[in-house]
Design goal:
By secondary structure, the chain is of the alpha/beta class. It contains ten helices and 14 strands. It starts with 43 loop residues before the first helix and ends with a helix.
Amino acid sequence: MNTQKKPGFCPANPNFSSGPCAKRPGWSLDALKGALTARSHRSGPGKLKLAETLARTRGVLGIPDDYRVAIVPASDTGAVEMAMWSLLGQRGVDILAWESFGIGWQTDVTKQLKLRDVRLLNADYGQLPDLSTVNFSRDVVFTWNGTTSGVCVPDGAWIASDRQGLTICDATSAVFAYDLPWDKLDVTTYSWQKVMGGEAAHGVLILSPRAVNRLETYSPPWPMPKVFRLTKDGKLNEGIFRGETINTPSMIVVEDALDGLKWAEHEGGHKALIARCKANLAAIEEWVSKSSWASFLAQETSQRSRTSVCLMVDDDWFKNLNTTEQSTIIKAIVKKLDEEGAAYDIGSHRDAPPGFRIWAGATVETSDLKKLFPWLDWAYSQIKAELEN
């Protein structure tokens, strides 16, 4: 492999991390000047900020009027666990996993909740389980987009419209990038930092009427931590879905989430965000199609994430190395790109096969991705040449 010439330009924004992901184009700290710092979230202005965040979320995502939306503690993880702890146990559950987050939900249900009637439907990184085997007379837990594998479900056609159980969907790296079928999702969760460049600590929980009915007619047999309690005296605590959060939220983080939603509205709403994501994936696909060494971890095009894009090295020299050696090379490339200011935090997740993970969601400019590709070629050729000599 000939050493590539070092590029003479860098992406304007080299933040390609998959969470927190890049801020929206043009963001600066001035975007937070309206934050209600040192004010109670229970004050009149605080409640208005939280209610506005929920209203804009509903508007941008097109969430049905009869669905509830809440801001909850502990990011997407807290939102998913709140749903599982509050809703599971009434009937059997199928849990799908094809990457680390799905595996985490399986561990919670089998090792912490210790449910007995559980089916684990798994697939290796880069693949999906057989969706036709899912039993919708049971509750079903799944991620829409596997953030650490770059594999997503192709659509919602596989989800039964006449299901008896609930669907609990971890949509944290998908919700602003795909047209989700709300009528087939009973619980949907995400976090601000994963999808719109927001700051950490808070999650969003979206409930269908079917999920609300389960909450009001079923009480799990285990103790419920305070931060998970969605009901009061057997009825849904409606205040939570008006912005009366269970614990104290950061009003700076709320302001940042509002800024992202306003930007989304300015860009043209959900459809415009989806279009930006598609354009970014198309740019990556074009580069990969011409690359002599890079390929997608997700081989099936319809299952390929358009946000957390996972790449592997498709080079015989690399594939003949052991996993430890491969990981060392990836880390060296990631470090080199970081030092050059060309790309930050693009190494694959620690549980995934050695490779790269590039965030290509709506807050990333296609022009920055196109400036990244020559740097990837250069860094790979440099590290390979150093090791071969």
